[in-house]
Amino acid sequence: MNRQLLSLIELYQTDNNLVKASHQALTELYPVLKVRWSRVFGNRWAHLLGNHQEISFSPLKVRLSGGYGLFIDNPDSLPGQEIQEVIITLKDVFYARH
């Protein structure tokens, strides 16, 4: 678990918007990451927030909870263990709160 990411999410989550708080925390800690947040409706993922100008043809697609997902367009920009810690932290946060 990435404690620094978790602390920033909790700090930024003032208006009860977990996606915005998570995006702000993630982009602050990892400015090199290009991420897009989605609302998940079955097989359909609808864009909510994030970088949509530079979309990868093969992003890492992560379902964070039943209703939210994340595309990471450049997961190779972080070491494998670090990107896995980010994903585990985000999944824990989203499953606990949604």
Helix content: 40-55%
Largest sheet, in brief, is:
4 strands, antiparallel
Instruction: State the total count of DSSP E strands.
Output: 4
User: Unreliable stretches, pLDDT < 50, 5 or more residues?
Assistant: none
Number of separate helices: 3
Main sheet strand line-up:
2-1-4-3
Q: Determine the structural class based on helices, strands and strand pairing.
A: alpha+beta
Number of structural units classed as domains: 1
Radius of gyration: 12 Å
Give a topology summary.
Elements: H1 3-12, H2 18-29, E1 35-41, E2 44-50, E3 60-63, E4 68-72, H3 80-97
Antiparallel strand pairs: 1-2, 1-4, 3-4
Helix pairs in contact: 1-2
A few lines on this structure:
This protein has 98 residues and is α+β, with helices and mostly antiparallel strands. The protein contains 3 helices and 4 strands. Helix 1 crosses helix 2 (18-29).
